[in-house]
Specification:
The chain is α+β, with helices and mostly antiparallel strands. It has three domains: 161 residues, Rossmann fold (3-Layer(aba) Sandwich), CATH 3.40.50.1820; 78 residues, no CATH class; 198 residues, Jelly Rolls. Helices cover 17% and strands 29% of the residues. It is built from nine helices and 17 strands. The strands form three sheets. A six-stranded mixed β-sheet has the order 1-2-3-4-5-6, with helices on both faces. Strands 7, 9, 10, 12, 15 and 17 form a six-stranded antiparallel β-sheet that branches. Strands 8-11-16-13-14 form a five-stranded antiparallel β-sheet, with no helix packed on it. Helix 2 links the parallel strand 1 and strand 2. The protein starts with a helix and ends with a strand.
């Protein structure tokens, strides 16, 4: 990006102050421009980006986001060969005619020949083996996370460019990208909203008629650069350095720093299972609970992990969701405000050598409506170190195979009033978004609810 910035500065119409912004792919490009060391790059506003490519897009929690990788690969291959991608809006075909033609190739003949001869980038194949940021993005490629901002931390940490970063609680893991960027480099302004990837949909699962604006206000984007590209840039307002949207309250908050929180844990031992086929003693009499996943579980085709494919985020009723095992926590006797990432810990096992585990944190209102607030996922492998004979397969009821599992729950901000409840739901898959392990067949699960808990960061001014 350095030569591009130099070219802009050299133009007669330029005042020598350059800004860069973008969403997603272009947002990452804008942020990486801050590594160029060009003092003329005064400000960058990166929106809806991935800081760690593996954990935030390709394989959240080590579970392969197959739908995203396959669809994105098809789109990139189409673009590389001069075709309009199927994932793009149909109306775009009327506006986009392809790559501009060179003066010495006015009919685009040579351009089409080059496009036809270009090999496939084969992104989907490269992404198959990626479950961690250190995994190579293909046999001939570097580590996956090195391809994004996480691979350029030293240069970003020393940038003198004013940088703002925006994300969303319900656009993949772009909220994680905001927090990780703040930990690694100087950030002038951070904003986490409730929008989808394009910023044109209010995606809060608890939105109501009086909710504040939950889509991207382009005037705010312009105002950011108006402050920093002037001849005499205005100083940032240190009292309003971070901005975040709170679901439930459906209001924006601003402060000099993120709210202070205390981790609060809710044990599953006292709540029991609420749905799905379960064997064993009734809840409250036996802490061991067993069930077998047979129905196909899903959060829908349009969810937080697919909105990066130019899709909306569908807000669906989860009360009758299939293929899950749910635990309903006690009714809240005081309002609860959560901010940040949580964790689900549990002593559990599957009757397969490896199995994907999806953990959903949901709200239940007094009328019984269930909404998905946030989630986490991980691939669970059998632990033979807890007494199970090495090299043998644990049976469905073999408690010796139980192992301590910890699943990180993606950050979120929400307020639930008195009378509402939190529900924890477990599933083996999220079809058709994520790759299921094992690919076919039922999975038997055993958990010890005495040693299972949901822990969330609760704001200190709440209970």
């Amino acid at each position: 990006m350095g030569p591009t910035i130099d070219w802009i500065v050299a133009q007669p119409w330029s005042n020598g102050a350059v800004g860069a912004t973008g969403v997603s792919y272009e947002g990452t490009t804008a942020l990486l421009a801050a590594t160029s060391g060009r003092p003329s790059l005064k400000a960058v506003l990166a929106r809806q980006i991935e800081w760690q490519l593996a954990d935030e897009t390709l394989a959240p929690g080590g579970v392969r986001n197959a739908l995203f990788a396959d669809t994105w690969a098809d789109a990139v291959n189409d673009l590389d060969h001069g075709r309009y991608p199927a994932m793009f809006p149909t109306i775009g075909k009327l506006l986009i005619t392809g790559v501009g033609r060179r003066d010495d190739d006015p009919k685009g003949i040579s351009q089409r020949e080059r496009q036809d001869a270009r090999p496939s980038s084969d992104i989907a194949q490269r992404a198959i083996g990626v479950t961690r940021g250190s995994d190579r993005f293909g046999l001939d490629a570097p580590a996956t996370d090195s391809l994004g901002p996480a691979g350029h931390v030293p240069a970003l940490a020393n940038t003198r460019t004013v940088v703002g970063i925006w994300g969303s609680w319900w656009d993949g893991a772009t909220a994680d990208a905001v927090f990780r960027a703040q930990d690694a480099m100087p950030i002038s302004e951070a904003r986490i909203g409730p929008w989808n990837h394009e910023g044109d949909q209010h995606a809060s699962p608890l939105k109501h008629a009086t909710a504040e604006r939950g889509t991207v206000d382009l005037d705010s984007v312009v105002a950011f650069f108006d402050r920093h590209l002037r001849a005499k840039p205005s100083l940032p307002d240190s009292s309003r350095r971070v901005h975040w949207y709170v679901a439930g309250a459906e209001r924006w908050r601003s402060a000099s720093q993120w709210p202070r929180t205390t981790m609060r844990a809710w044990s599953l031992v006292s709540v029991g299972a609420m749905s799905g086929a379960m064997s064993g003693a009734p809840a409250g009499q036996d802490s061991l609970q067993r069930w077998r996943t047979t129905d196909r579980a899903t959060t829908g085709k349009n969810n937080r992990w697919t909105t990066g494919l130019a899709r909306p985020v569908d807000i669906i009723e989860r009360g009758k969701a299939r293929g899950i095992r749910s635990f309903q926590l006690p009714v809240l006797t005081d309002s609860l405000t959560v901010f940040g990432a949580g964790v689900f810990t549990c002593r559990m096992a599957a009757d397969q050598p490896a199995a994907t585990l999806h953990v959903y944190v949901e709200s239940i209102d007094p009328a019984g409506h269930v909404r998905l607030l946030t989630e986490g996922m991980q691939t669970i492998t059998r632990n033979a170190a807890r007494g199970a004979p090495a090299g043998t397969s644990a049976s469905f009821s073999d408690t010796r195979a139980l192992a301590d599992v910890s699943v990180r729950i993606r950050p979120v901000a929400f307020t639930l009033p008195t009378g509402w409840q939190i529900r924890v739901s477990l599933a083996n898959e999220d079809a058709p978004t994520f790759e299921r392990v094992p690919q076919t067949g039922p999975v038997g699960w055993t958990i010890d609810t005495r040693l299972c808990a949901l822990t969330l960061p609760v704001e200190n001014n709440g209970r």
